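User: Please predict the structure of the protein below. I'd like the answer in C-alpha cell form so I can feed it into my own downstream comparison script.

Assistant: Understood. Taking the following sequence of 588 residues as input:
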Amino acid sequence: MNNLTQNILFLDIEAVKGTDPIKIEELGLVYGDKTLKTSSFAEAKAFIEECDPIYIAGHNFIEFDWKILKGTSLFSMIEKRVIVDTLPISLLLFNEKTFHSLPKKYKNEDEFLNDPVEDSKLTKDLYEHSIKRFLSLSWDTQLIFFTLLHNKPLFRGFFEIVKKEANLEVLDNEYLYNAIKKLFATVIYNPSKIMPAIQNHPVELAYILAILTPDIEVKAHPPKILYDYPAIISLQKELCFNLQKSLDELSDFSKEVFGFGSFNEFPCLDATLESGAMLSQREIVEAALRDETFLAVLPTGGGKTFTFWLPALIKAKCYKGLTVVISPLQALMRNHIDSFNAQVANFTAVALSGYLSSLERADAIEKVINGTADILYLAPESLRSQTIFSMLKNRLIERFVIDEAHCLSTWGHDFRHDYFYIGEFINDLLKEKPFQERIPVSCFTATAKPNVIEDISNYIHQTLGLTLKRYLARPERTNLDYKAVPVEKSTDKYVRLLELLNERKGAALVYIPSSTSTCDEIAEKLSQDISPRRVCSFHSKLDSERKMEIYSSMLIMRLMLLLLQRHLEWELISPILKQSFTMKCQTL
C-alpha cells in the first residue's frame, strides 16, 4: 500500500461558513510522515513546494475545497496536480454508515472543532480502504468500473493511480456491454438498456452496478447520489425490473419467499361481467406491480397483508424500493413484523413505533437509511416527525400502503384524525425528491360500506390527485358462524354472557364498541365471576407497554378472555381464537 500513497499530499480546509467570499480559517496537510496545520497560505505553499506531490487528495475536494481554494494564492500550486477525491469513490464502494462522512473519532463531548490535519489523516485512511476494496473485486468488475469512470472528473485521479497497480485497460463499448450482460445476468432483466446507459449515463450505471455487486456492501443509493443523479432511479428500473417477467414468475417467487405459490379468491362485491364473479389476491398483487393506485377490500383474515408484502419484496429485490405501511395500532405493527420475520428470509421489515426501545429504534432507522429495510411500518402520527420526513426524503419510496384505510372515513367510530395528514405528507415529500415524480398509494380495509369507500376515494383524489382503482371483495367471513342471542332486558345481557363463557372453554373475545370505560368495567366484573380465567380489556387508551404485555400474553396463551373496544384489533387477535367465539355487546 505504501507505493500507492507515494507522491500524494492529503489536504483539508476549515472554512468559515456564511462569509462571502468564504474565508479559510485553517489548512491541514499530510504528506507521508510530514504534517502541517496553518492559517498561512505562504506556509502551506512552501510545504507543497517542498513535498512536490504529483497528486493532491481530499474528501469532497472537487465540489468543496477546490472551489474555495480557486480564489487564493495557493490555487496555482494545486491546479497543476492531479486531484484525487475520496468521496465519489467511497459512495461507490461503501455503505452510508461507513465513510461518506469522515468518522471524526478524535472529537469528544468537549471538543466541537474540526482538526484539518486529523481530517487529512482520515482521508488518507479512506483512500487506502478504497484502494483495498477496489482491488478485492473480481477482475471483470474492476474492468467494468474502470472503463465507465476512468475519464470522469470526479474519478480520474483515483483511477490513474489504480490503473498502474492493477494494469487496467479500457474496454470498447461492445466488450463492455457483453461483460456487464454476463456478470449481471441474474439481476439485469432488460439487457437492451445496457448500451444506452453506457453511452449516456456511465456514472449512474456504475453506481447501479455497485448496488448489484454482492461483494460491495452498498444496499441502496446514498442521498448524494440520488440528488446529484436524479435519473438514476428510472435508469435502474429500466435495467432491473421487467413487469412481464415478474408476472410470469409470481407464483414461483411467492413459493420461494413464503412457502406457497397459490392465491386465495373471494366473491366480488357488486360483481359485473367485466369484473367477474371472483376476486383473486393475484389481481391485487399485479396491480401493485403495475404501479396502480387502488383500494382493496378483503375480508378479515383474507390475506391482505400478503398482497402488499409480495409486490413490495419483488420491487425491493429489483431496485431496493422501500414500501411504507401506515398502520394505526402498535400491537398490530408488532404482530406484522414478528410474522414477517418468522416467514421471510433475505428481506427485512422494520417498524418505528412506541413499543421499541431507544436502541431498537436507532437500529431500525439505520436499516432504513442504509437500504437494509425493504418494508417500513409507521403509525400515522409518526409522519409529523422531522426525523421520519428526512429519512424518507432520502430513500426511493416504492409505495405507501394505507392499512385499515377505513380510518379515513368519518362515518365510523374508527376515524383517526392523523390519517388525514397522510396526503399532505406525501405531497411535501415529493417536493423534496427530484429523483421521484410520483408515489403510488394502495388502501386496504375489510370494511366495504359504500359511504366508507367513497370517503377513502374522495380523500385520495382531493389530496393527491389520484383516482383509486377498486378491487372489492365481499367482506363476509365464511369461516365464522354467527348467532344472535335474544334477551328481554338489557340487564340480562351480562348474565347470558356469563352462561355462554362458561359453556365454552378456551380463549374468547367480547367486542364492546360503546366506550373504553365500559370495556374496563366489564373486564373487571368478569375477572371476579369467571376466575381463574384471566381477563383483560384492550383499547386505544392503554399505553404501549401495557398493550405489548397483553399481546405477549396472547401469543403464549396465558390470556383466555379479551374485551375489545374497537374492531381494529380483531386482525391482531383472530389467529388465536380459531376455536372460540366473538360477542358484540352494545350495553351491559
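That's the full C-alpha cell string. Residues 116-136 form the longest helix (21 residues).
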